Amino acid sequence: MPVFGLGTWRMGEHRDQFQHEVDVIRAALDMGIKLIDTAEMYGEGGAEEVIGEAIRGRRDELFLVSKFYPHNASRNGVVEACERSLRRMDCDAIDLYLLHWPGSVPLSQTFEALHQLQDQSKIREFGVSNFNLSNLLDIPDADQSNLGCNQVFYNLAHREVEWEVSAWCCERSIPVMAYSPLDQASSLLRSPAITGVAERHSASPAQIALAWLLHQPGTVVIPKSVRPARIQENFDALAIELDSEDLAELDVAFPAPDSPVRLGMR
Ligand code: NAP
Fold this sequence. Notes:
8-stranded parallel β-sheet; alpha/beta
């Protein structure tokens, strides 16, 4: 799986933005970005429709991630949700299909449906999102080590996943996919620690926030932007190597949790 992808939350919500968003995704593919993250929830299918238009004729170039609602996590619900997503994206398969957050449907049902979709080649891998350790341990035993990823809220200002979830995933070689890696362009990007490191690297604060995540083992980032210049800026973070001085300064300003903490969620 590529370690850098484009997020699409808030895309597909306004019809008058459709062509612009299609063009943005095509520009991202032209830059060499190979992973797109979406969900049936984004624009209630609208983001998947934008993606369907943008990737027409280019499906083989990329790794497509989508997610289904917990209220669609039943045996038939997952299969039907996946088929709707495939129709909207006008493609035969999703590379990685995730349960968006934990719900009330027994996970044995959900994973049975995911296996069926895999057997039918409608999905290549499956995984979860927003799962804390107790949620992960509720997954049927045989599937715990087969997860394609756990997609979680993770950035320098929100390191809750490091309390116990990262280690569990790392021990099983399950990628941690960091969502809201820029903390949704919050004050994180104006923090003196980040701007100081950014100046030393002649980089932007967003690039440092992403480079720090990419330095964490087994971590994938999926920043979202609808501006090609920013997408290129974010993608260029892959070339930044943080040194021990940078990492130490960022650790002081944004310490890892040292006591039990709930996994954050957006
Ligand atoms: P994010 O990627 O941390 O931040 C996106 C915001 O940052 C947008 O407002 C964007 O504005 C701005 N931005 C992007 N690049 C920038 C840069 N270089 N400098 C300054 N501002 C920049 O937040 P996110 O969209 O919440 O998370 C990313 C993706 O993760 C989502 O799109 C979605 O695919 C996924 N996600 C998953 C979950 C889940 O529950 N599984 C939850 C949240 C998000 P412009 O667009 O105007 O550039």
